[in-house]
TrEMBL record:
The organism's place on the tree of life at top rank: Eukaryota
Domain Cation efflux protein cytoplasmic: from-to ranges: 365-426
Residue ranges of the region described as Disordered: 1-21
Annotated InterPro entries: Cation_efflux, Cation_efflux_CTD, Cation_efflux_CTD_sf, Cation_efflux_TM, Cation_efflux_TMD_sf, CDF_Transporter
Protein location: Endomembrane system
Topology term for the membrane: Multi-pass membrane protein
Annotated protein name in UniProt: Metal tolerance protein 11
Domain Cation efflux protein transmembrane: from-to ranges: 155-346
Pfam families given in the database record: Cation_efflux (PF01545), ZT_dimer (PF16916)
GO function term, MF aspect, one: monoatomic cation transmembrane transporter activity
Alphabetized UniProt keyword annotations: Ion transport, Membrane, Transmembrane, Transmembrane helix, Transport
Length: 439
């Protein structure tokens, strides 16, 4: 049978109408392209209801073309390619991108980038469906890369501890509120690294009786606790800076104190900048996060040093104002972190693009799958829980149905973003939902 026998809902822009001109094969509009079968997964839908009768010869011929898989039951995107000029379109980079000022060309480049990523995701799911694993580097290459990434993380942590101690000394010697606020931001990096380390250490000692689904939720919970502490410290610095602004306190540095301050802060900034360049050479998300933290440290160190020097040579009020700016930045950073981790704990749905990939994988898993009733992925900590409901023939033996469902579950759990997958098997799709409606 061909894919049309299991597809329940065609796009309203279906090209079987003779009045709609055909588009070139390089055009990447996957929903309306006449060269591939229509599937609700491309529209972000999660349900596939009753089959569609193919009433026209044109419809049958479209679904039977070679680039549709020679009439096979799998969805196939091998015949869909982007033109070279479309592949070469790059997303904008620069100040106008940071400010959110995007023109029509930028939107077009973003559109084609999304199409490329969607095709790559489908190809990855094809490899997983056919081979049972995600192709990648060899074991030796993975071990070599893992060692270099571990070294980058360790050297970042060691540097953070050493530089934090140096900034504490600079804060004590200078008494500058701006330097103290910059030191508080360095403490943020240390605590973040400690949380990641503690989470990894806790996961190495699982307890299936007390924690049957693991301890990965300790990471967002720990971040929430430390975020409360950091926000309190930031507010304390703001209050102290406000008190200093309205007092007769005079900021002064001796020549020796100034030399120590400038030397320490410039050295810390230089080391952080070198770490930015080093960590940006990796593709690992954790190492890239360290690179971003190092970059922000460079900015806060420069702001703190400039505020302290301006307070000495121009006016006293510049030091507490610089401290307030840095404290507000620290509070904002932790607030965004809190929102991100709250979303990971409340069970927020995965992006539609990710649900498309999962639906595509389920559809191509086995030819006995008649319908895909539900594909649901939601956060439960730092990873996703996935629920899939598929419909199999009513007369299929239990052993065969069980093997199909179990192998699909194993494929889903091979994806790095998924912590646990649940596959529910059914023989029809017209029933009411099995679970009570969520509140």
């Amino acid at each position: 049978s061909f894919p049309g026998s299991r597809i329940s809902d065609y796009s309203s822009h279906s090209s079987h109408s003779p009045n709609i001109p055909k588009k070139p094969s390089c055009f990447p509009n996957f929903i309306s392209s006449p060269n591939i079968p229509r599937s609700p997964l491309l529209l972000g839908k999660r349900k596939m209801v009753e089959p569609v009768a193919l009433e026209s010869d044109e419809e049958r011929s479209l679904l039977a073309r070679p680039n549709c898989g020679d009439g096979s039951w799998r969805l196939n995107f091998d015949g869909v390619q982007l033109c070279r000029e479309q592949k070469e379109k790059k997303l904008p980079r620069g100040l106008h991108d940071c400010l959110g000022v995007l023109g029509p060309e930028d939107n077009v480049a973003d559109y084609y980038q999304q199409q490329v990523e969607m095709l790559e995701g489908f190809n990855e799911m094809d490899a997983l469906a056919e081979r049972g694993f995600i192709p990648g580097m060899s074991k030796e290459e993975q071990e070599k890369l893992a060692k270099s990434e571990t070294f980058a993380i360790r050297i970042s942590n060691v540097a953070n501890m050493a530089l934090f101690a140096a900034k504490v000394y600079a804060s004590v010697q200078s008494g500058s509120l701006a330097i103290i606020a910059s030191t508080l931001d360095s403490l943020l990096d240390l605590l973040s690294g400690f949380i990641l380390w503690f989470t990894a250490f806790s996961m190495q000692t699982p307890n299936p009786y007390q924690y049957p689904i693991g301890k990965k939720r300790m990471q967002p919970l720990g971040i929430l606790v430390f975020a409360s502490v950091m926000a309190t410290l930031g507010l304390q610095i703001i209050l102290e800076s406000m008190r200093t602004l309205f007092s007769d306190h005079e900021f002064d540095l001796t020549m020796k104190q100034e030399q120590w301050l400038v030397g320490i802060m410039l050295s810390v900034t230089l080391v952080k900048f070198l770490l930015v360049l080093y960590c940006r050479s990796f593709t690992n998300e954790i190492v890239k996060a360290y690179a971003q933290d190092h970059f922000f440290d460079v900015i806060t160190n420069i702001i703190g040093l400039i505020a302290a020097l301006l307070a000495k040579y121009i006016d006293d009020w510049m030091d507490p104002v610089g401290a307030i700016v840095l404290a507000l930045y620290t509070i904002r950073t932790w607030s965004l972190t809190v929102l991100e981790n709250v979303n990971s704990l409340v069970g927020r749905s995965a992006a539609p693009e990710y649900l498309q990939k999962l639906t595509y994988l389920c559809w191509n898993h086995h030819k006995a799958v008649r319908h895909i009733d539900t594909v649901r992925a939601y956060t439960f900590g730092s990873h996703y829980f996935v629920e899939v409901d598929i419909v199999l023939p009513a007369g299929m033996p239990l052993q065969e149905a069980h093997d199909i469902g179990e192998s699909l579950q194993e494929k889903l759990e091979l994806l790095p973003e998924i912590e646990r997958a649940f596959v529910h098997l059914d023989y029809e799709y017209t029933h009411k939902p099995e679970h009570a409606q969520a509140n």
